[in-house]
Amino acid sequence: MKLNELILCSDKSLGNTDILGITCNSKEVKSGYVFVCINGTVVDGHKFAQDAYNKGAAAIIVERDLGLDNQIIVENTRLVYSEMCAKWFGNPADSLKLIGVTGTNGKTSITYMLKKVLESAGYTVGLIGTIQNMIGEEIVASQNTTPNAYELNSLFALMKAKGCSYVIMEVSSHALDQYRVYNLDFEAAVFTNLTQDHLDYHKTMENYLEAKKKLFKMCKTAIINSDDEYANKIISGLECKVVTYSTGNDSTYSAKGIKYRPESVDYELVSSGMINHIRVNTGGNFTVYNSMAAVVCALELGINIKVAAEAIASISGVKGRAEVVPNDKGFTVIIDYAHTPDGLKNILKTFKECEKNRLIVLFGCGGDRDKAKRPIMGNIAVHNADYVIVTSDNPRSEEPLSIIDDILEGMKGATTPYKVIPNRIEAIKYAVKNAQKDDIIVLAGKGHETYQILNTGTIHLDEREVVAEAFKELSE
User: Fold this and answer.
1) Residue 17 Cα distances to 11, 102, 271, 305, angstroms
2) What is the pLDDT of residue 400?
3) Are the beta carbons of 281 and 291 closer than 8 angstroms?
């Protein structure tokens, strides 16, 4: 492919250069590659432009004059990188029907539910998300909730080649802000909710909101949780079709007659001229919202309600989302990804209603991330659980005890008993070995993750394995 097929180039000689690859990572640059200098949150790619030049980069895309004879100056390298990657792979997204799901909580569950519904309707479906990427039944490892532009278009191309009709994506606020999904057209986009998270990056809730709102300026139909306090701000000014769902207020679709059980929920999905029963094999109020979002989106895509309802009822659960760890010890262990204040409150309220003895929560907070939510989560824990174990999540470069101290600030004055065990493996084993009959233990924060990021590096940590080992030690 010629350079001028990827980007407008005033230098005809440079524009006719054969391009062998595109990257924004200077370590990947080879002779004949285009290197795009992106000013990231930690490192400015412009610092590596000379190194890329020395490696034989055919062209270097920059936002300022670096004095290189093969540089092309543009206003926004992130945007240009996204455009170039799409062209490099032949604009594969144009042949796919894209569905985007954004919000603080619920994205993963909704995408899995919707994938099941669309597959039940006979479609081959691609999925891009937090736990993993999928092409039909093929699993592809995932590094970010929304991949960078090159990886994303590579996935689109592979999904197109393997016959996918639909691609369902979790679309993060970072991806929207960083133009990773720039110039994509979505058939439908779902807004779940907006609660405090990622303020280390966005700084304010208003910035966080504006990043999320970008998705709904790229879609044909916006599907909005109108019970969320930010719903009207998301809807305001949209030119696309807007459909709302709720459990109480006046909306396009409503859930009525909700019946909660520890392991499931039932409700009637009501809209103009339609009432249909929905059953989901996961408990909790959040399950109502997640399943409504998936079903409503499917209906707006033209899927039959009976197909959608049967598909939702057939789902056993999503890994790391209110996941029950089977055991015969007389108590319940739940693994959940809850890592935000709202997520933690929701999972604890759900199982508080089910408890026969104590509700125990084990959690920590991530390092190098939004510090403001730490005391808030500590406060939520002591006011919604009967016993709290404060431990580490992914401390990254921070000292675990420093993070824990921030959490404990929010627990001051509370009478709920708690214990601090910085080592997460030891903390989980302590929780299991000290559990009483009919206790419910919620291991919050890690969910589907099978690793832990420490200041010394990344280690393997699958909470299912730790719990199993603790059960074994109990039996010895």
Assistant:
1) 10, 39, 57, 53
2) 97
3) no
d(CA 147, CA 144) in angstroms, rounded, equals 5
Q: In this structure, are residues 279 and 266 in contact, taking their beta carbons and an 8 Å threshold?
A: yes
Virtual torsion, Cα 92, 239, 112, 225, nearest 10 deg: 170
Q: Is the pLDDT of residue 341 over 70?
A: yes
User: What superfamily would CATH give domain 92-313?
Assistant: Mur-like, catalytic domain (3.40.1190.10)
Q: Whole-model pTM?
A: 0.84
> Rounded to 5 degrees, what angle do the CA atoms 207, 211, 215 make?
155
| Domain edges within the chain | 3-86, 92-313, 323-475
Q: What is the pLDDT of residues 138-187, one digit of tens each?
A: 988 766 667 889 999 999 999 999 999 999 999 988 889 888 898 899 99
Residue 69 token pair: 């004879």
> How many beta carbons lie within 10 A of that of residue 356, not counting itself?
12
DSSP states along 129-157? SSS-EEETTEEE--SSSS--HHHHHHHHH
Cα distance between residue 457 and residue 459, in whole Å: 7
Instruction: Work out the angle at residue 192's Cα, subtended by the Cα atoms of residues 352 and 409, and round it to the nearest 5 degrees.
Output: 50
59 within 8 A of 34, measured Cβ to Cβ: yes
Q: Tell me the backbone φ, ψ of residue 115, rounded to 5 degrees.
A: -60, -45
Return the percentage of the chain with pLDDT > 90, whole number.
78
Q: Which two tokens stand for residue 227?
A: 């019970």
Q: Alpha carbon of 222 to those of 176, 241, 245, 413: distances in Å?
A: 16, 6, 11, 44
CATH 3.40.1390.10 fits 3-86, yes or no: yes
Q: Which fold has domain 323-475?
A: Protein-Tyrosine Phosphatase; Chain A (3.90.190)
Distance (Å, whole) CA 382 – CA 365: 15
